[in-house]
Write a structure and sequence with these properties.
The protein is of the alpha/beta class and about 290 residues long. The chain has a single domain, classed as Rossmann fold (3-Layer(aba) Sandwich), CATH 3.40.50. The longest helix has 23 residues. The structure holds NADP nicotinamide-adenine-dinucleotide phosphate.
Length: about 290
């Protein structure tokens, strides 16, 4: 797969810019966090384990000693944890120029603490609440950006079964539930862009490519070599579209969906403003009742 060569440039991030990224201890998030630090951002990493994130914090300290990264505990499977993470960020009294909703799971089954289907709860609901709670910071720091890592897999669902979102993962492969969670990422980003029109907070959703990361850990061992045969990207290649949206995509392209560092057309469902509005209103009602 080819990508538009568009490395992040150091002049794209003035010295005082701050980025918060979820799930950056490994995979695409780790590469993104390192590149943002290299581009001059003060990086805040929100994730489940300080111990597992420490190697990335050390790497950032080595390449930007004046701006060590900050770690905040965050478990996206718990809305209480999301709330605490946002409060801890606000207590840092930093601006927020870039929020990267990167963390994600595939193939993990069951229910989150708050009773959402596991992938929908972690991939969509956790990020929905985090973004809502940090919107005042993003708006006060505008021009700013919200980048949400979706997936081409959003095309693999015929719709959203609203009842299934409050039940444990049902499909045998869990592909359908993953697809719904990634469709939700996409619809969320488009609806957020509509709601933030005129505020100079821009929103981008993206497909990173099919990337050799731990996201595939739930796959049976025999399936991994098959994936590799299909030509998996490295994590460095997989981070390029996130970095393009974070650093280079024009503000006029807010609300669009990217792949290979350029806007692409999502599925018909992914472009449906009514579906996006209903998802937004339901998500809002769910977080209000948390
Ligand atoms: N890899 C691909 O081919 C591909 C394709 C399309 C889209 N994506 C998307 O790309 C994003 C990054 O995935 P990746 O491929 O880099 O996967 P990865 O290597 O598995 O990394 C996922 C990250 O999410 C974190 N995470 C998982 N559950 C979490 C939770 N409950 N709370 C907070 N953080 C949590 C993980 O932290 P822990 O170490 O604590 O688990 C890890 O840092 C995801 O949104 C994924 O859906 C990936």
């Amino acid at each position: 797969m080819t990508h538009t060569p568009h490395p992040p440039s150091s002049d794209s991030a003035p010295a005082d810019r701050v980025a918060l990224i979820t799930g950056a201890n490994i995979g695409i998030g780790r590469v993104t966090a390192l590149a943002l630090a290299r581009a001059g951002y003060q990086v805040v990493i929100a994730g489940r384990s300080l111990a597992r994130t420490q190697p990335v914090l050390d790497e950032i300290k080595a390449l930007a000693p004046a701006k060590p990264a900050v770690f905040l505990p965050l478990n996206l499977a718990s809305l209480a944890s999301v709330g605490e993470c946002a409060q801890q960020f606000i207590a840092l009294n930093l601006p927020l120029h870039l929020l990267v909703n990167n963390a994600g799971i595939a193939g993990l089954r069951g229910l989150t603490t708050d009773g959402f289907e596991m992938m929908f709860g972690v991939n969509h609901m956790g990020h929905f609440l985090l973004t809502q709670l940090l919107l005042p910071q993003l708006q006060a720091s505008a021009p700013s950006r919200v980048v949400t890592v979706s997936s081409r897999a959003h095309k693999r669902t015929p719709g959203i079964d609203w009842d299934a979102l409050r039940q444990p993962t049902r499909s045998i492969t869990s592909v359908r539930e993953y697809a719904v969670s990634k469709l939700a990422n996409l619809l969320f980003s488009a609806e957020l862009a509509r709601r933030l029109q005129g505020t100079q907070v821009s929103c981008y959703a993206l497909h990173p490519g099919v990337v050799d990361t731990e996201i595939w850990r739930a796959l049976p061992h025999w399936a991994r070599p098959l994936l590799r045969l299909r030509g998996l990207l490295t994590a460095e290649e997989g981070a390029r579209t996130t970095l393009h949206c974070a650093l280079h995509a024009p503000h006029t392209e807010s609300g669009l969906y990217y792949a290979d560092c350029k806007p692409v057309r999502p599925s018909a469902l992914g472009q449906d403003p009514d579906l996006a509005r209903v998802l937004w209103e339901r998500s809002e009602a769910w977080i209000a009742g948390r």
